[in-house]
Amino acid sequence: MNFELPIGVRGHLADFEKVFIKNFLIENNLKFYTNNLGNVVLVSAVTKYGEVVIHKKDVITYLGKGKWDVRQEKKDE
């Protein structure tokens, strides 16, 4: 069974980690960096501008072909 990540799906990184397994996200160009103990210390995404770090409150959107959009969550003023 071949499942593809729908283009335009968006949310916080935590939402993606709840829905999809880590290996599936890695196949779609999210990168998980770990320390010597195996704890994830940094997550990044491949965008059209290169690799960008994803912060806890950033909203990420899948653009297709392994590319992501990473934006800071807008605060209400």
Secondary structure: helix percent:
10-25%
Major beta sheet, strand line-up:
1-5-6
The low-pLDDT segments are none
Proportion of residues in extended strands: 35-45%
Question: How many extended strands?
Answer: 6
Biggest sheet overview: 3 strands, antiparallel
Number of domains: 1
Number of helices: 2
Question: What's the overall geometry?
Answer: globular
The first-to-last residue Cα distance is 45 Å
pLDDT averaged over residues: 92
Quickly give the structural class. alpha+beta
Order of helices and strands: EHHEEEEE
> What Rg, in angstroms, do the CA atoms define?
13 Å
Overview of the molecule:
The chain contains two helices and six strands, in the order E-H-H-E-E-E-E-E. The protein has helices at about 15-20, 20-25; strands at about 10, 30-35, 40-45, 50-55, 60-65, 65-70.
